[in-house]
Amino acid sequence: MNLNINIKRGVFLMLALALGTLTSCDDEVGNGNGLTATSVDPSFTITPVAGEVNTYILTAQAKGVIASKWDIGYGPYMGKMVEKIVLPDAGKYTVTHTAIAAGGFTQQVSQDIVVAQSDPSKPNLVKGGFFNDATDVAKWTILKLSATGAAFWDFKPGSATLRSPGGWAQEGIYQAIDVVKDKEYTIDMLVSSASGSDETWFEVYAGKSVPELGVEYKDNKVMGLSTWDGCAKSGFLGRLSIVGCVKNDATASVSNVVNLI
Asked: Where is the signal peptide (predicted)?
């Protein structure tokens, strides 16, 4: 799990996951329509949006393309032929467009976008969200929830994975973040699993209460994955705001918006 979370006094960002058992499943683009293409042009253009900071329009050429999949560095997702993106942080981003043609045939191409300056109005307030090294990991506190200790967090450069030998287990990680009263924020992150899950959930909270050792966190659920709600049963890769299906406590709908009063 890679975290790139864009939320902006006294809020605790909690990531909690409970594991059941894992099952293997293949991810398919589609079943085809009987007419399979042998080539497709995945080219696209990048156009900065005038008057909007670090905002771009991605436009795919349309000939022979029946669907578009985009990846702007947070994992691939199904998008539109004309896609508007915002890159709040300075850096180099590799944008990949996968063009899907008849029968599910795909081809892809990548282009780079260099963002010179971060947008001061849309800062990434989460520290260590990329888990690049020990300094990043040290920004997070592990919340022990399972008495057995069967589950544990495994941090590698660029990811955080919760591992368990099997059976029921639950653990979380969290950090405190300063926010402004009545201001709206959003949360997102890259999540992935090569195989599906059974009786498993992953939930994200942004709450005011302090997490307690051994106590399941329930303050202001924002988003997540849950096999009971119909997602994460098969393999997935993408932004949680797209592949998730757990409803936001505040809106009673699938949403990654946080507005703490």
From this structure: 1-26
